[in-house]
Amino acid sequence: MNGFDYWFPFIVPLTSMVAGIVIFFLKEEQHQMRTFINLAVAGIKVILVHIMVLGVYQNRFYEFRMTMFGDVDFVLHADSLSLLFVSLSAVLWLVTTVYAIGYLEGSPNRSRFFGFFSFCVSATTGIALAGNLITFIIWYELLTLSTYPLVIHRGTVDSLKAGRLYLAYTLPGGSLILIGFVWLVSLAGPVEFAERGSLAHVAAQHGPELTAIFALLVAGLGVKAAMVPLHGWLPSAMVAPAPVSALLHAVAVVKAGAFGLVRVVYDLFGIELCARLSVMPFLAAASTLTIIYGSVRALFQDDLKRRLAFSTVSQVSYIALGISILGPIATTGGIVHLVHQGLMKITLFFCAGNFAEKLHIHRISEMDGIGRRMPWTTVAFSLAALGMIGVPPMAGFISKWYIGSGAVEAQQQWVILVLITSSVLNAGYFLPIIYRAWFAPVEGRDDHPIDWRLGEIHPFLLWPPLITCLLALLAGLFAGAPASPLFWAEVITTREYGL
Amino acid sequence: MTPYLVIALLVIPIAASFSALLTNHIVRLASRRLAALTIFCCASLVAYEITLSGEVVDIVLSGWQVPLGIRLHVDGLSALLLVMTGFIAACITFFAEAYFGKQAQRGRLAFFWPLWFLAWTALNGLFVSGDAFNLYVTLEIINLAAVAMVALPRTEEAVKAALGYLVIAFLGSLSYLFGVAILYTSLGTLDIQLLAHRAVADGPFILAAVLMLIGLMIKTALFPLHFWLPPAHASAPTPVSALLSGLVVTASAYMIVRFGFTVFAPLLTTPVTMLLGLLGALAVVWGSLHAFMQERVKMVIAYSTIAQLGYVFVVFPIVTINPDSVSLVWYGVLYFMVSHACAKAAAFLAAGTLKKALGHDSIAHIGGAAIHWPMVLMAFGLAGVNLIGLPPSGGFIGKWLMLQGAIKAGQWLIVATLIVGSLLAAAYIFRVLRVALRTPEGPPPQAQNIAPLAALALILAMAPLLLGVFSQFPFALLAVGSPFGGAP
Fold first, then answer.
1. Rounded mean pLDDT of B155-170?
2. Would you call A186 and B422 a contact, using CB atoms and an 8 Å cutoff?
3. What's the domain count of chain B?
4. Residue B301 sits in which domain range?
């Protein structure tokens, strides 16, 4: 193992951390310098992550370890699951950075914004790479702290209120996780995340305690994953600028919660222990409730961003549902949805941001004929929305297909019913938007031919949704190809189940 | 070389104190800057050498052996506290220079500097002294110097606060001194290590312990003996507030931990520790709630001190209920105390800078401060992260260890207190930040140049962060001469 391999998992979060600190000290008007640092670091990160992905595929294991105190270490390691999340965040980060630069042009306090923005990506990669409990919670809380200034970025009364709500949910959630982790450490010693779980040595004599710990962890992580009834912060956090919403929903915060659930189930407790404790039906019930509830609430929102927010509440729980079925195929579906939902949801939020930025349209009732005025943005929006419903060949179809067939394989046919209900509801709140955008009659505009010249909005705002939408399409079309998210999710499943 | 460095830690500040009285202001300026930096370097060197050698340093002054002579006892804990004091006090020294400006060259405020270095000498002395009477002397010097510094502005408010503080400090010292006297008559020594060997739980010893503990509890402002702290800490000039809340209360809390875990160990039965724990929990909740209700930033921080010191007592029951967790609690409390001292001093410096810039520190009227002076609010926020106990701060590590101790002992009430305390701390810290982050209504008021003040607050606020990130070094240091073995 050469020296560079050792430092690798440490360097990846460190790059954006350092960038954040540098950006803090830039003057407000050093616009080009800031843009350069942002894009350079985001680009470097994508490359570094790419190298690690190749390494891990060849069964290399990257690990960074530093003693904190006593026998407690600070551990960052790259396994197949961490890399799925790291590559998602690295790629989407680059895109979101471009979008944010375009979106915030000329607005105040950009140094503060991009500083915390970088901290936020640092924390997300840290969560992905965390190799043990204390490391995970360090990054997890750092994520809370670094997203708070982003949520309240506008400094208005509404955004400050949303920020307070955000902390009122996430800090107690973090405390529950802290209790769970410390409890686990005092039962089982310094446990680390390892494929197939790492609690086998205490499973026999501590059953009830482990069940309680599992409940604590799910409740704590459920806050960020916005599981009902812990989702209250998410819709109100919509007051944040569009790139932040995109980020909160697709990559950073809700995904950190969902990723944490995957980690806890597979790499901490392990499938066998989860099955033995029979805790999974509860997780399945909670995620089913969330899926249905979120979709129903989304139906009744007229504000576009709020509708998307409730859609996130619903969609993220597919991940939890997929892992709670405890079969390899459903697992693949749940894990791959981590990526697919990210790609589609970030597209939707970019598009919503574009509508608001260019046409000042925030409500669905105002969206009549919007497809004629901003065709490319609306194309991206429509494709992503179809993907969310689960229409082939978009990525969302693949996730739903795998979760469904995994459920059948595991003899849990009721899941199919959940999927169908949810898809109908998804169609119920997305199709009207698509209809309005393209087909609703608008007086005096019908006779104009659509202008397809890509000049509808600043390129920094137009290309990000187009790219992410294309990625979502490709992830669906070429799901069987090597290097697709599905392929990687299957690699993870193989390793988790020891197949 | 370590003994000489330890002596230097006592000689340099006292020399600086005299220099501040006697010489002209250019020599003063140079000598205090030099002194501040040298003391910090000496303290760091002591810590470095102790970590390397792994051995406790005992210095017997003027050749008289214990129990007759005076012994200086420098273990890892003392060394860590010396470095902490050196760093915080050096930051405050430079801060005070910029804060008082030309005012402190002559007139009343000129007395700040001799008093300041006197207090610093006594703090260093307290952390290295190995016998109960020397601890009393140094504690008394610290208090007298502090009272004088609180009274320095000579406004009615300041004099009132100083008087209240003086009375309470004397009561505390008196109680402690009586305890020490009884201890000496019954056990024939004042050396802490000999005391720990000779201690038997008989009548005089119990009486002595109770008197000493009550004295120290008054000084540590444990609920319900806390009422004197907020006015004294909040109304003092900012550098003095930072000294009081950061270092002075830490000194008495240190004595409680030192005595509680060693000399008084035979006396700690479950009812006793339960009582202490209960008082601590009340302090946490009561202090935090009051911090949340304050209208001035400095008052918030002062009440927060009461709450945070409560944690030192909250975990005492674990010691008797589950002796296996003692080492977790010992390391947790100490790490918590050290991080808290840095964070609290930094929070006061940030609040003072804000006060300087705005002319007031009323929370209702600091809207937009985070936009005008981001560095100040960053410092406050970083300090706040530690007070809440969030990673990556030293306070988080302290809390992690204390939680682990509590869970191992099955003390879920203590777990609940620790968590509730954190959440309440988040409530009062973010209450301030939230207003400050509001979009400002106009341009910033024309203030003096506060950049140096803000920078110093920020540097000090980095300390708890460094304690969180590079925790292995302080833990290695703490393990030297620890009564409970290496870090858990």
1. 90
2. no
3. 1
4. 271-488
